[in-house]
């Protein structure tokens, strides 16, 4: 049975390479996509309180993919979890496909933002966390996934500097570090978040148990950042 034929079992992590393999065409940004695969799977499989039937539920968690310039892994995980049909995947990037080279929240079920321009996701996530708090919605958590190269953008540092003192406890950021940043951070990426009052951890971005433990670590009164280190982009 092929990956696109009717199945009697749910899609799992081991199916993701085959699902990604259905997406062909130019501008795939392969390293950007594969660097996020394990983080996305652990989040959607074990952490995020979301689902295909909850895309408009005010109580859902919000996941904002800022690293949207390589969305193949994101689309594969959304397909595996039933947000989008698997038969959409082969059309990735084509003129009439809803699955563009950057995700479009209007076209892709489950996508909270249109993304791919560097430095947008974390500021939007800060605003989302503030908005939920203002509405008295204390249960939803806000997650955003950014790349280490996005920390070259000043908008992220403004968001980091604001969120810590604001005590945005429901805000979570995952930085996928594939050594793409142009500028080194004194003390490393974690130190940048900690200096602004965040809880922060560094883990192996391919170790599912380590990722899960870091994602679920308690951080009362503070936003939480997880730096997920993966192989360098040039490797």
Automatic annotation (TrEMBL):
Keywords: Thiamine pyrophosphate. Pfam families: Transketolase_N (PF00456). GO terms for molecular function: magnesium ion binding. This is Transketolase. Belongs to the transketolase family. It comes from the Bacteria. InterPro entries: THDP-binding, Transketolase_N. Its cofactor is thiamine diphosphate. The keyword Ribonucleoprotein does not apply. SUPFAM superfamilies: Thiamin diphosphate-binding fold (THDP-binding). Residues 29-216 form the Transketolase N-terminal domain. It comes from Streptomyces toyocaensis.
């Amino acid at each position: 049975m092929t990956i696109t034929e009717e199945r009697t079992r749910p899609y799992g992590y081991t199916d993701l390479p085959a699902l990604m393999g259905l997406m062909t065409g130019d501008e795939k940004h392969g390293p950007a996509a594969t660097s996020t695969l394990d983080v996305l799977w652990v989040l959607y499989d074990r952490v995020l309180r979301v689902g295909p039937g909850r895309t408009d539920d005010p109580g859902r968690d919000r996941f904002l993919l800022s690293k949207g310039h390589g969305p193949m892994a994101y689309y594969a995980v959304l397909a595996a979890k039933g947000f989008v049909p698997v038969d959409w995947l082969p059309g990735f990037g084509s003129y009439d496909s809803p699955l563009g080279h950057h995700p479009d929240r209007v076209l892709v079920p489950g996508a909270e933002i249109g993304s791919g321009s560097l430095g947008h996701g974390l500021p939007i996530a800060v605003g989302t966390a503030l908005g939920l708090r203002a509405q008295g919605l204390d249960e939803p958590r806000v997650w955003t996934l950014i790349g280490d190269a996005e920390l070259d953008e000043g908008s992220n540092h403004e968001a980091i500097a604001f969120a810590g003192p604001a005590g945005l406890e429901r805000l979570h950021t995952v930085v996928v570090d594939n050594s793409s940043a142009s500028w080194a951070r004194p003390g490393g990426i974690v130190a940048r978040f900690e200096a602004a009052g965040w809880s922060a951890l560094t883990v192996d971005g391919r170790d599912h148990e380590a990722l899960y433990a870091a994602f679920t670590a308690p951080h009362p009164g503070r936003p939480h950042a997880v730096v997920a280190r993966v192989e360098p982009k040039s490797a």
